[in-house]
Specification:
The structure holds two protein chains of two kinds. By secondary structure, chain A is α+β, with helices and mostly antiparallel strands. Chain A contains twelve helices and seven strands. The longest helix of chain A is centred in the middle third of the chain and has 37 residues, at about 255-290. Classes of the chains: A alpha+beta, B alpha+beta.
């Protein structure tokens, strides 16, 4: 047991691999798919096949969205420093580190990675063993938000009514990431609105199920390579075995199971923001160097140029966001409740991420603003990371309630 | 030497006109009259400080005889770097945890209760300083074979300890940690002669007050370009210059002074009774319990034993970095104290029929204190662990410093805001922490891990 905040030695190959993929497959395709919004990024299929191959051989160590889990030890046969030290550096930490690299590459393309959808995280977190096996290899997107319901997800109106061996789903979902490209959609619906949040369950709905229609795709500010779908459910019949977890309406447990997914995914979204912002910082540092600005770590910021001093401030915030993200993942790996830390990470990374990417555009001047470089794109991509999966304001609310010891009834 | 200073904060472009002269004359009449008529002569302490601020100086404290020992060319004792585990971990070692527990108890039971009075009197109470020696603070950075308690580079342990004491009070923490800065410097950069001559005092019964003096009094001061100078004269060095914000300067028996030698910054050991060394009180916005002072050097002569470390600026630069790291650590403790204080306050304080903590503007301010504090903490710990492992840490300490200065001050500011009017008065400690936190990112030297 020693305090050490370096990225784990054993993950260096993983990080390096992800970085090479990001550099050589994602970056060369960034501008193309940003412009050709909604065109399917076929290069990712090859990448997905490669990752599947790595997963089968055990080398990928559960990196990515499906790596977030608490109840399964990382099946890593290699010499494990952490096992000796009684401290785990496991699949959660591996996931955030590899996602950081991939998003250093391209956030939109990462979100378009086959079989790495948010629905896969839900399945990983909530499904029973039989469902795990059945949905293995299925690319699942997640459908929660509705036209009238965003942050207050307990208020969703999509219904699921039991009829024989099927649940019948009715409702409309918006902002479904990978909603069109995914093989299945994990849909949040209520068994009975009068029973409140405990009656909200998630259902795996395979594409092709009659009654589910992808109505349209959004045109967006950023992550344009990611398909964001509106999906309508009209008398959509879903086999009852596709309800994830238990169908019991347990007033105490119920909603918590679904929300547990977010404890696991919040660090991942923070990691996306950290990776994207790092791309901006690295390029901006090089551009400033070309302009004759050297960033000196020893001289007081105030004795350096404004550009250097600004850069130091941005890099400091970045470092904080990066380490908060690692902490949240590390706690998950070590089976410690990390709801507070996960929200802290997402709050800091979300707000600093956009602050950094936007300031970098400003620092780089017209080079930052034009489409010749990717800086302007990263400042468009980063904005969503402070919004989806729990907005900045929701994260602050969660942190505040935790620090102040307040319930949601007391602190709104 | 000329020390530029404004007159009552009025800048040089602002001139008196005839009315102004008349008003100034009236002011002079009025203040003398009022004082005598209403017997409002200021209390003795305040007169002293006003007097010292206008240039009254005292000689340095009489220092004990530091009996020369050891050989300049002998092998000094150096702490090895901590090994690198390769594992991401936020758990302190058992030894570190024990230290933190002891120091945390000291902070809560002795430091915090003494803080308000120490702030008023601009001095740390004797019993408290003695107790801080008893828990071994000056020995933290000293190798075991020299009478200390360390077996490897102690930057991480030092960081955790500084954080723990500062949770009691930042000013008193600085007062307690000041001697340790010198003993740590001797351990890190002292040759055999310097270690054998000076360290026994720090690991013995009667530890001297001591101070690491790097800051100089001017805006945009860059510690890598000190204006204090050291000039060779035979085998000796002659020092001239002014250092500011030096903790417990009047009590210190040994200083480490930063000065420019042949174009490069270097560290010098100066005993307090050296002729030409004078101390001036420098009461400041915060850290008042640390009895900050100016050290004025006029042709102060030190022998060859006086040069601490190399002449290439390497030891000096490392000293600056490790000192900055210590300040970051201190800011964590005070920021935590702030968070711990405001939470129960805003939960109890009622307005409009319910606790003010039910308002998002208040709740979010608290949340952001928590978020930024944890960010500051992790960035500081990373710098500390890299320093302990012997890895380059210039980048990490720069980032920690920027963060702790910016976000630390924000926390100080928000802490007062959350208490409203009550935050502004001395009934509560938050106004003191506001004043103390402004020092972060500003002061160089003073403390060291």
């Amino acid at each position: 047991m020693t305090i050490n905040l370096e990225a784990p030695r054993k993950f260096r190959p993983l990080i390096s691999q992800a970085h090479q993929v990001a550099m050589n497959l994602l970056r060369p395709n960034s501008r193309k798919y940003d412009l050709l919004e909604h065109e399917y990024p076929k290069e990712l299929d090859m990448l997905a096949a490669m990752i599947d191959g790595l997963s089968d051989s055990g080398a990928a160590s559960g990196a990515g969205a499906s790596g977030v889990r608490r109840d399964v030890d990382s099946a890593d046969g290699s010499a494990d420093d952490s096992a000796r030290a009684n401290v785990k550096n496991g699949s959660n930490l591996a996931s955030v580190l590899s996602i950081m690299e991939m998003c250093w590459g391209d956030v939109g393309l990462l979100l378009s990675m086959p079989r790495q959808g948010l629905g896969n995280s839900a399945i990983a977190s909530v499904a029973d063993p039989e469902q795990h096996a059945r949905f293995d290899g299925v690319w699942a997107s997640m459908a929660i938000t509705e036209p009238g319901t965003g942050s207050d997800s307990a208020n969703i109106a999509t219904t699921a009514v039991l009829d024989g061996d099927h649940y019948v789903l009715n409702g409309e979902k918006i902002f479904v990431t990978a909603g069109e490209r995914s093989d299945a959609v994990v849909v949040w619906a209520t068994l009975d609105k009068s029973l409140g949040r405990a009656a909200i369950k998630s259902f795996v709905v395979p594409k092709g199920t009659p009654g589910m229609t992808v109505e349209r795709l959004e045109h967006k500010l950023g992550i344009r390579s990611s398909d964001t779908a509106t999906i309508r459910f009209v008398d959509c019949r879903v086999p009852r075995e596709n309800l994830l977890g238990s169908p019991e309406v347990d007033a105490k447990q119920g909603f918590a199971g679904a929300m547990a997914t977010f404890d696991n995914t919040r660090p991942l979204v923070a990691a996306m923001a950290v990776g994207c912002a790092r791309a901006s910082l690295e390029l901006t540092k090089e551009l400033l160097q070309q302009a004759g600005v050297v960033i000196d770590y020893d001289r007081p910021a105030f004795t350096q140029s404004a550009a250097a001093a600004t850069f130091l401030q941005l890099e400091a915030d970045w470092e904080a966001a990066y380490l908060l993200t690692l902490q949240a993942a590390w706690m998950a790996d070590n089976r410690r409740p990390n709801s507070l830390e996960a929200s802290m990470a997402k709050a800091k990374a979300g707000r600093s991420g956009s602050d950094i990417t936007l300031r970098c555009v400003e620092l780089a001047g017209s080079i930052g603003y034009s489409e010749h470089e990717l800086l302007e794109k990263w400042s468009r991509d980063s904005k969503i990371l402070d919004i989806f999966e729990g907005t900045q304001q929701i994260q602050q609310l969660i942190v505040a309630r935790r620090l102040l010891g307040k319930t949601s009834a007391e602190l709104k | 030497m000329a020390l530029t200073r404004t007159t009552h904060g009025v800048t040089s472009g602002d001139n008196r006109d005839p009315i102004g002269y008349a008003v100034a004359f009236l002011n002079k009449l009025a203040s003398t009259g009022a004082l005598d008529r209403f017997r409002l002569r200021k209390p003795a302490e305040r007169v002293v400080f006003e007097a010292t601020r206008t240039g009254f100086r005292t000689a340095g404290n009489l220092n004990r005889a530091f009996a020369r020992a050891g050989k300049r060319a002998g092998r000094p004792s150096r702490l090895p770097s901590a090994g690198s585990t390769g594992v991401f971990d936020l758990t302190p070692t058992e030894d570190e945890q024990m230290l933190v527990d002891v120091v945390a108890e000291f902070a809560e039971e002795m430091v915090r209760p003494a803080a308000a009075d120490a702030n008023e009197s601009c001095a740390a109470p004797e019993e408290l300083l003695r107790a801080s020696l008893e828990i071994g603070l000056p020995m933290l950075g000293v190798p075991e074979d020299l009478g200390g308690i360390s077996t490897e580079r102690s930057a991480m342990a030092g960081t955790l300890v500084a954080e723990a004491i500062a949770k009691g009070d930042l000013g008193l923490a600085v007062a307690c940690l000041a001697p340790g800065a010198v003993s740590t410097a001797l351990s890190l950069w002292g040759n055999d002669e310097q270690q054998s001559t000076y360290l026994p005092a720090f690991t013995g019964e009667d530890v001297p007050a001591a101070a690491l003096a790097l800051t100089e009094p001017r805006p945009l001061f860059d510690p890598l370009e000190p204006q204090a100078t050291a000039v060779r004269d035979g085998d000796d060095f002659v020092l001239n210059g002014v250092k500011s914000l030096v903790p417990r300067g009047a009590d210190a028996e040994l200083f480490v002074i930063g000065a420019r030698l042949e174009g490069r910054p270097a560290l010098f050991l100066v005993e307090s009774a050296s002729p030409g060394l004078e101390i001036e009180a420098e009461p400041s916005m915060g850290l008042r319990a640390a009895a900050l002072s100016r050290v004025v050097l006029t042709d102060v002569r030190v022998g060859p034993i006086g040069l601490l470390g190399d002449t290439d600026g390497e030891a000096y630069t490392e000293c600056v970095r490790l000192s900055r790291l210590a300040w970051c650590a201190l800011s964590l403790g005070t920021a935590q104290a702030m968070l711990d204080y405001v939470v129960p306050y805003v939960n109890e304080r009622q307005a409009f029929g319910e606790p003010v903590s039910h308002r998002q503007s208040v709740a979010f301010m608290v949340a952001n204190i928590g978020i930024e504090l944890q960010g500051m903490r992790l960035v500081t710990y990373k710098a500390a662990s890299r320093a302990a492992q012997g890895k380059p840490f210039d980048r990490e300490v720069a980032l920690a410093r920027r963060l702790c200065a910016e976000r630390g001050m924000q926390i100080g500011n928000d802490g007062v805001q959350l208490l409203g009017g009550h935050g502004f008065v001395k009934e509560h400690p938050v106004e003191r922490w506001y004043r103390d936190l402004r020092a972060i990112g500003l002061v160089e030297g003073g403390v060291l891990v």
